[in-house]
Amino acid sequence: MKRWLCALLLPAYCYAGAAVAPDYALAPQRIADGVWWFEGLQEHFTRSNGGNIANTGFIVGRDGVVVIDSGPSRQYGEQMRKQVEAHSGGKKIVEVLITHAHPDHFLGNQAFNGIRIEALPQTVAVIAEQGETLSANLYRLVGAWMQGTEVRKPEALTQTGERVIGGRKLRLIALQGHTEADLAVYDEASRTLFAGDLVFLHRAATTPNANIAKWLAALDALQKIDFQTLVPGHGPVVHGPEAIAETRAYLVWLRDSLHAAAANGLDMMEVANQPIPERFRSLAVVQEEHTRSVSHLYPAMELEALSPAK
Ligand SMILES: [Zn+2]
User: Fold this and answer.
1) Neighbours of ion ligand 1 (CB under 5 A)
2) How far is CA 53 from CA 47, 85, 247, 279, in A?
3) What is stated as this protein's family in its record (predicted)?
């Protein structure tokens, strides 16, 4: 097949056939002095996006660079590392922080050989237990982009709160709700908050490991932080509270609509087919995520509705 036609129709397959590494075309965007992010696509995992659907970033300190999340594959990690090194004025990467145990955020770890990678203890435990399954699943969804990707487990991050890494004062904030352990990273100098997947903007939240009550409490905690810029796990960078507000509104609606459906005895198909309110219809991939959320969250709510009142 001609290369251009190939690239148009099935890029990952073609690149693999030509033994050329797929190109994520990563280009970091500057947020503030020494603070950068890579924007993920507002899509599901596909064979054309290679799993590049989450935001990642890095912070350049006086003595070194801190990377936040390593992306979905070894190729992504390697291409990200090149870009980080090209934009950090010759400073070395001294630390990689993984926000949580979802495959689009940690499967690039291999690219950071010889560098300390840390995540919250529960994130490390989940990666140790489910990393291979998560990786195999991503291979199935995005194909050749994953070539050579293997799971590298982070070290357990035992010291949260204020930490100076690479000569930069950071606050490492341990929360939960999107998963069992969600790390947010706040850079004091620029007042930039990397919120991980606790915050989504213009995209429906994913809930395979969610606890909505804890997630809402985490959003309360994030809202109290005096940030100037917020980098959500998915969606554009913002300078105000709107991303937290949007995530909260979506989760509250999800919780309340599923509870009401359970109280009314609807079955799972009926719930999944309920119309999405107008105000959420413009969120990327909302229909698919809503269907997935019903399957993740509804069985427990049905059980709760059926159990006798205590
Ligand atoms: Zn996630």
Assistant:
1) 102, 197
2) 12, 22, 17, 23
3) Belongs to the metallo-beta-lactamase superfamily. Class-B beta-lactamase family.
Contacts of 225 (CB under 8 A, 6+ apart): 173, 186, 193
From ligand 1's centre to the CA of 90, what distance in Å? 31
Q: 105 C-alpha to center of ligand 1: Å?
A: 7
The one-character DSSP state at 42 is S
CA of 42 to the centre of ligand 1 (A): 13
* pLDDT tens digit sequence for 290-301: 999 999 999 999
CA distance 183 to 171: 10
- Distance in angstroms (rounded) separating the CA atoms of residues 293 and 207: 6
Burial class from Cβ neighbours inside 10 Å (0-12, 13-18, 19+) for residue 206 reads: buried
For residue 273, count other CB atoms closer than 10 A to its CB.
Answer: 11
Ligand 1 centre from 129 Cα, in Å? 17
Instruction: Please list, residue by residue across 34-65, b when 16 or more beta carbons sit within 10 angstroms of its beta carbon and e when fewer do.
Output: bbbbbbbbbeebbbbbbbbbbbbbbbbbeebb
Strands 192-200 and 56-60: unpaired
* Cα gap 102→234, rounded to integer Å: 13
- Tell me the pLDDT tens digit for each residue of 34-86: 999 999 999 999 999 999 999 999 999 999 999 999 999 999 999 999 999 99
Q: In angstroms, what is the span from residue 197 Cα to ligand 1's centroid?
A: 5
Domains and CATH numbers, the chain: 26-241 (3.60.15.10)
Please report where in the chains the tokens 């059980």 appear, as a residue.
Answer: 303
Q: How many angstroms separate the CA atoms of 274 and 284, rounded?
A: 18
Please name the residues in contact with 145: beta carbons below 8 A apart, sequence gap of 6 or more: 12, 22, 47, 50, 51, 72, 73, 75, 76
Instruction: Give the distance (Å) from ligand 1 centre to CA of residue 304.
Output: 26
Per-residue tokens: 274 = 């309920």
